[in-house]
Amino acid sequence: MSEKTGVERLIQKLKTVSGRPGVYRMIGDDNVVLYVGKAKNLKKRLTNYTHLDKLSTRIRQMVSQIRDVITIETAGEAEAFILENNLIKQYRPFYNILLKDDKSYPYILITHEETPRLMRYRGARTVKGDYFGPFASGLAVNQTIKELQKIFGLRTCTNSYFSNRSRPCLLYQIGRCTGPCTACITPEAYREQVRQAKAFMRGESVAIQADLTRQMQACAAAEAYEQAALIRDKILALNRIQNTDSEAPLFQTDIVAVYRRGDSACVQIFFFRAGHAEGNVVHFLEHLSDDDFAETMASFLMQFYDKVPPPKYILSSEPLDAFLADALTQKAGYPVQISTGLHLRGGRRKAMEQAVQNAQRAYEQHIQESGIRAEVWEQLRELLQIPVLEKVEVYDNSHIQGSFAVGAMIAATVDGFQKKWYRRYNIDGTRAQTNDDFGMMREVLLRRLSRGLVEKDLPSALLIDGGKGQLSSVMQILDELKIHNLAVLAIAKGEKRNAGLETFYLGTAPDQPIHLDLKGDLIHLLQRLRDEAHRFAIGTHRAKRAKNMLHESLTDIEEIGEKRKKALLLHFGSAREVAGASEEQLARVPGISAKIAKKIYTFYHG
Question: Does 175 have pLDDT greater than 90?
């Protein structure tokens, strides 16, 4: 299909579309849903897709695939928000680029049981109890649970472990559980501890402290000094947790900070619960436009809060669609208020400004890690002495004394590393010796370039981790395949393998070593490319080794015959135990010298 055909079908469909709010689905071949969108005026929104000169390349590509359009009218924009989110979740359309991952965030759960349990929870809320969160990471949850244990002494053990205890466990001994399993605390007192823990997680810490202070004073008056000291320690722990630099503690609030540059943006969402910051999550958005940015952000947040129950208050650095609060309120079942940066004052405004600064830093770091500055890419092109530099491929090998040999190729453009083009090559020894680095490189390049010739998919340049010998081997392969317009650069390791002391050799001038400015951006780019190839090769090798480790026979190790294999199995009992043994343990086996023990250990551990 063509763009013209897609536009014609849209124009035909517009004859029956109203100007009411609603949701539309773009349908492609085989009834595949290409895109789901919402609009306050369906007819006006769909008409926009017919003006190709105002559309991005990506959206024009979508229009060319349209076979049909399905529209659903809704009572209002809030209902359209909710329906759009549900349909995106159902169909997961290719051109809806927001939040395609299935990540869920952890919560703290206090169960509804006779003896409630404190636990970390992630996933659908199928367990009855009180949920507190979300938290940005499991680490943050674990830390909070640890503090709650110290203060309130709630159990964290499983029900089966709890019901089979005859004496208190170690957590009771170190003061992190009150021991309800063996009646070290009365049911009434434990329920009071649970009540206080829930109140604390809801942000009612002032009332809890006042209550604890009264209990401490009562114990002191009754001369129960040991109990008074325990309560004092709880109060001190509460004070430590509540220490914060924030001028305005936030309760049940998310701060949504956005930093935009061009058609991309970084969105950071900071969770504040019970007056404490519980971490933040980061998302990067692309293909944005000024015309519908507020609507795009609203759709993004609607999808985000489909996985995370929305808080009562959302503070946003950017204006959002006015109907988002209504949609979230309907979905959550309680009022959700949204305020923008323009209306914030005092401590809240300061917190927002800090959040936006964090979003800017995250965006700049993301660009630095994922992209390559155009001027440095141009320096690389000049070094390679080629007119155009589109794609660079970098090669490396990895093996241990010939075992689990692999070749690896990574690819990069001016936009950064292109992981969809990464390739792994298993070296099985049939075409090249697995302990011959030159032979392994030859096999990998012959396989890659031969296929590239057939598919007309050759890079602009090759980067090889090696010196003049590797370069010579690569140039021979190019001559054999009659490839004469491919730049090759070899990176020879520096003295003592120090980064920054590398020597470079061009395929067109192999006898003329090139030394780059140690502080220049170009050498850092080349090191980054080489290191990524090395990381990918090592990771591939380790994965292969781990997969095959326990399936390989001990006799595959050099100098291990049937006699030594039998001695090892008799001593350790299984190949798994041999794989987990240290060099010293291996050397204790009769017939296994220190040298052979080292070979066995290296075989399994690298």
Answer: no
